[in-house]
Amino acid sequence: MKTFLKTAALTAVLCISAVGVLAQDKAPAGARGEILGQIDGLAKKYVGLAEAMPQDKYGWRPGEGVRSVSEVFMHVAGANFGLPNFIGVKPPAGLPEGMDKIADKKEVVKQLTASFEFLRNAIVNMPDADLEKTSKMFGADRTYREIGFFMAGHLHEHLGQLIAYARMNGVVPPWSN
Fold this sequence. Notes:
With about 180 residues, the protein is mainly α. The chain has five helices and two strands.
């Protein structure tokens, strides 16, 4: 009975702690919350797929002149670090040179994870009042809100590419089991 009571008490403490953490990390309402919802879901899929893909497939490409598996992952990481510049958030200092050439699985997963954290923080720290501010992006004036949705769209595009790469190499995306 003592063991049961200790276990029940510990479970209660952990549940209360988890609720507190979740409440602190609640996504904002509106467009920023919608963008963050996309980014958070995509981050889990990207990192899960990067971890599921065997190292020996990181150099695989479907044809000459097409990005390899690692090049697509690193393109995404580079975009996650670079695109927030359009909403006034400079890329972090100390990024590795030649990121697109990184092909070691552990380093790819590390950079990909860090890039999603950076992207998420850029959106979290953007005040709602800035959503209608504009910035030049690829030659056109865009609102910060549009830029946020562009970033999510870019991620969806390359996730589809990586799903195809994975399937062609016999790797089942972990979330589709």
